[in-house]
Amino acid sequence: MATAPKATTPGPCDFPSTIVRATIVQASTVYNDTPKTIEKAGEFIAQAAADGAQLVVFPEAYIGGYPRGYRFGIGVGVHNEAGRDCFRKYHASAIVVPGPEVDKLAEMARKNKVYLVMGAMEKDGYTLYCTALFFSSEGRFLGKHRKVMPTSLERCIWGYGDGSTIPVYDTPLGKLGAAICWENRMPLYRTSLYGQGIELYCAPTADGSKEWQSSMMHIAIEGGCFVMSACQFCVRKDFPDHADYLFTDWYPEQHEEAVVSQGGSVIISPLGKILAGPNFESEGLITADLDLGDIARAKLYFDVVGHYSRPDIFNLRVNDNQNKPVTFVSKSVKAEDDSEPQNK
């Protein structure tokens, strides 16, 4: 006679993992038209949310635009009026943070119940910063990260972020932060994120190269985190017509449909598995379900700022103070200073 199977109790390794659905939006800016760019973003966010996304990530400089091919009339010792006017238009497309555009994005996050990471050009007075904006699913603006090191000619048109905007946010989905484009090549910057326990590592970028994929794979394994690299997909006709632009097409056909930013957005697990992408073909959504249990599985063998670190030999110091070019001392401090006897 067959006997009934014995009842079993869950073993110590049977704890369920948390699953987070993440979506990358791979799309082009609507250049010189920030309201339409935000409207386009809203359509993609709604589409991602309808598919169950809990986290939505946009590319570098999506709002305001990555100025690929722009030269702004710049040359050593050259002052070019056409370049100055080009910068005027580019500055006009950037947004103030916080400001009305930030409020609109926060409302999109709330309406669609998603955490949102948005690449944007931020203007602070007349200086521009390449920035990642963070929003909660309740519609709260969490804060921002300003790119600390613009690359190449970017340094002529963008300011430098300081250590006060290198956040990692502890959210219900996981610890969320970002490194923008070639910041991802900066080992010490990455380590500052690892030191804050980053789990959902967003990498908004303008680098659509095949080599970039290797960097993203390495970071996922090194950091024991999920990496979401978001890059725009753009063709020539997406950009304003300007004789001074210098494009390096990915393909030899130089016409309005020629690809000038080929995307390559990708999602990679802490175990080095490609979960979605890379997409080098078109605009669209790249979505994956992230098993957060993979973080612990990966860190069994390698925890870069934990059991695999040697702080007795190597130690990173991060200056997270805000650095301002001008600081005004308050009247009360001035009065206190004035009350002290002066050396004759």
TrEMBL record:
Q: How is this protein named in the record?
A: nitrilase
Q: Per the UniProt entry, what species is this protein from, by scientific name?
A: Brassica campestris (Field mustard)
Q: Which SUPFAM superfamilies match?
A: Carbon-nitrogen hydrolase
Report the family membership. Belongs to the carbon-nitrogen hydrolase superfamily. Nitrilase family.
At the top of the EC hierarchy, this enzyme's class is hydrolase
- The source's domain of life comes to Eukaryota
| List of catalytic residues | E60 (proton acceptor)
Stated EC number for the protein is 3.5.5.1
Q: Give the signal peptide range.
A: none
Reaction catalysed by this enzyme: L-asparagine = 3-cyano-L-alanine + H2O; 3-cyano-L-alanine + 2 H2O = L-aspartate + NH4(+)
Gene transcribed to yield this protein? NIT-T1
Extract the GO molecular function terms from the UniProt entry: 3-cyanoalanine hydratase activity; cyanoalanine nitrilase activity; indole-3-acetonitrile nitrilase activity; nitrile hydratase activity
